[in-house]
From TrEMBL:
Cross-referenced SUPFAM superfamilies: DNA breaking-rejoining enzymes
Domain Tyr recombinase stretches: 42-240
Gene3D superfamilies, per database record: Intergrase catalytic core
Molecular function in Gene Ontology: DNA binding
InterPro entries: DNA_brk_join_enz, Integrase-like_cat_sf, Integrase_catalytic, Tyrosine_recombinase_XerCD
Annotated GO biological process: DNA integration; DNA recombination
Keyword DNA-binding among UniProt keywords: yes
Signal peptide as annotated in the record: none
Keywords: DNA recombination, DNA-binding
Organism: Deinococcus cavernae
Family listed: Belongs to the 'phage' integrase family.
Annotated protein name in UniProt: Site-specific integrase
Pfam family of the protein (one): Phage_integrase
Keyword Transport: no
Length: 263
């Protein structure tokens, strides 16, 4: 039989019994059979398109403009953005390859592999985002020349003045820029949700495409995570079904109505 206990209590109990087992005070750790409760889903807030435009206009020319533009136009995770290297940029195909993350662990920046197989992916980027990356590269080259031997040659795209990751300062910079722009106070991770929200509102962008760009392990997960964003799509499907078996004389475009291209 398995029981559920509060997450914090389970962790403490599990550690205590593990120590007791090591001391020979108990035969086994019975907390192993206790199921941890599901954590409550976090509240997601997103920007409306006009808020995103306001923010981007306010940070024009900022050293991290390209990072925030990438976040809003691709939905990339914070660690994926920080882990990007110039070797990961394919200018000919206008896309970036996600091959590593830089995350904070125990107060230090650590380079890790992406969280799943689908997280390793190529993400097409729009022309203005590519142009911002190219401008960022030129600015970084000037900074690199000024730093001279003090520059850490890590090939990272988003760095401080010494060539190391900007990760430790990103949260502070994000809050400062967000508040200065006078837009809704969302989290950095909500830029990812903002991308998904705007993309889902575009009728030509499918759940499959959004899932691939976000690096989700399945389309089902994308639909579950952003179920509210696809409500309109489901309503359109119901409306379409009303005409699905109608006589061709009763509907002007019966084939187009069910999403099949003619010819």
């Amino acid at each position: 039989m398995a029981f559920s206990v509060p997450l914090g209590s389970r962790t403490i109990l599990h550690r205590a019994l593990t120590q007791a087992q090591q001391w020979g005070l108990v035969i086994r750790n019975v907390a192993e059979n206790v199921k941890p409760p599901r954590s409550a889903p976090s509240t997601r807030q997103v920007w409306e398109p006009h808020e995103a435009r306001t923010f981007l206009a306010s940070i024009k020319g900022h050293p991290l403009e390209a990072l925030f533009l990438l976040a809003l136009t691709t939905g990339m995770r914070r660690g994926e953005l920080l882990g990007l290297r110039w070797q990961d940029v394919d200018e000919a195909r206008s896309q970036v390859h996600i091959r590593q993350n830089i995350v904070t662990a125990a107060g230090k920046l650590t380079t890790t592999t992406p969280k799943s197989r689908r997280s390793v992916r190529a993400v097409p980027i729009p022309p203005d985002t590519l142009a911002a990356l190219q401008a960022h590269r030129e600015a970084q080259q000037a900074t690199r020349e000024k730093a001279g031997d003090n520059w850490a040659d890590l090939d990272l795209i988003f760095t401080n003045h010494h060539g190391t990751s900007v990760g430790m300062n990103l949260t502070r910079v994000w809050y400062e820029l967000r508040d200065a722009a006078g837009v809704k106070r969302i989290r950095f991770h909500d830029l990812r949700h903002t991308y998904a929200s705007v993309a889902a509102s575009r009728k030509q962008v499918s759940a499959q495409v959004i899932s691939e760009r976000l690096g989700h392990f399945s389309v089902a997960f994308t639909l579950q995570t952003y179920v509210h964003l696809f409500d309109e799509e489901r309503r359109r499907a119901v409306h379409t079904t009303e005409n699905l078996f109608a006589d061709e004389a009763e509907t002007e475009t019966p084939v187009e109505a069910i999403g099949v291209k003619q010819g």
